[in-house]
Amino acid sequence: MSDKQTMAVYAKAAEDYAKGFARTKDTVHDRDYATFVAGLPDGGTVLDLGCGPGHWAARFRDEGYHVTAMDASPEMARYAKDTYGIDVTVATFEDIDTTARYDGIWAFFSLLHAPRTDFPGHLLRLHRALKPGGMLALGMKLGTGERRDTLGRFYTYYSEDALRALLAEAGFEVLGARCANGKGLAGARETFVVLTAHA
Predict the structure, then answer these.
(1) Residue 188 DSSP SS3
(2) Which of 27, 172, 175, 183 is a Cys-bridge partner for 167, taking CB atoms 3.0 to 4.6 Å apart?
């Protein structure tokens, strides 16, 4: 994701974003985390794709996983390093070029910034980067169309059925999904879905 307007929002809001979402225990997603790690081997390798301020990457590390953190925002990467000691690779979704490297990929509300035309290719890259049977946690917002939020960030919205179909086309087997409502950085309450799948 390299949309300049979206990146500018994260550059400006990096510290506030981290304070709001990383300083408190993210119990809203404990169930999603537990479902994801249940499919990982002890000490497995995890890619935190779009790691933001680094709180999930730190949790994986602290619970014994070998984590690779990636984010397109240099400001978020710097915060993750300063706050959690997480070394973040500054890169975009297109830069994922590994094969059978990870036991799990945590794509938690990052791919929702990708244009619809690019999304299938990103899923194929994630499938290739996972070891056979590797786990994927995909967090997305539900809705239709492509648009910017009140902060100017670009989003692409999908239905759960559309996401299930796209995952299947990329070679994933969907294991389950959880829908709920939550408030994001822009302050609006929106419906999201977290899908768990394996390669």
Answers:
(1) coil
(2) 172
